[in-house]
Design a protein that fits this description.
- Helix content is 82%, strand content 0%.
- It is mainly alpha-helical and 258 residues long.
- The protein has one domain: MetI-like fold (Orthogonal Bundle).
- 31% of the residues are buried.
Amino acid sequence: MTRLRQQVLPPLVTVVLIAAAWVFATTGGRTEDYILPSPGSVFAALGDNWSDRLGPATWVTLAETLAGMALGIAAALLIGVAAGLLPVVGNAFSPLLVASQSIPTIVIGPVFTIALGYGMAPKVLVVALACFFPVAMNLLSGIRSADPVLIDTMRSLHASRSALFWRVRFPSALPSAFAGLRITATYAPVAAVFSEYTGSTDGLGYLLLQAVPRLQTDFVFALVIVLTVMSAALLLTVTALERLCCPWNAPRQHRKES
C-alpha cells in the first residue's frame, strides 16, 4: 500500500498542480484564447469533434503506430538474435544502427511517401524506423553484458552456442530490451503524427496541419490530449508485458523504487 501511494501520489499531485495553473492562467483575461485556451474549451472541442473527426483519426494513427512498432520490434529482435548467435553480425550492424537513428523522422517521411505513395505503408515504415534503434541497441547491450559467471558455468557444462544464447544471454537481455520498448511506446505515436504531415488525408497529424493555420488552438490541445493518452496507454501495456515476461526483474525494480 505504501509503495502504491508512492507511485500514484506524486504524478497525481503534479497533474493537479498543472491543471490549477492552467485554469488560473486562462481566467480573468490573462491570456488570449488563441494562445492558451481554457480547459473547458479544450474538452468541449474534444467532445464535439470526437465522433466525426477525432475518433476516426485516432484509430488511423493508432493502427499506423501499432503496425510500425510491430515491424520495428520484429526487425530489432531479428538483428539481436542474429548478433547473439553470431557476434560478427552485431559488429557489422552496429554502425548501421547508429546511422538509422541519425536520420530525422521529418526528413525520411517524404522520401518514403515518394517511393511508396500516399497510403499507410510509408507511415508504418517511419514508425518502424523510429522504434527499431532503441530496441535493437538495448537488446544488443543486454546480450553483451550477460553475467560472465553464468556464461562460464554454462561453458563448463559444454553448452552449445545456441543453448548459451537462449538460456543465458537472451533472458538477461530482456530487461534492457523492454527499456528500449518503453522509449518506443512514448515516441512511436509522435513518429506516426510526423509521418502524416506529408501526403496524408487522415490521422491526427493531418488534423493538426489543418487546425494550426486556422488558429484552432482548443482543437490542437485536444489533439495533444489524445496523443498523450495514446502514448500513456502504450507505455502501461509495455510495462505490464515486462512484468509478465521478466518476473525475475520485478523484485529488483521494487527494491530500487523503495
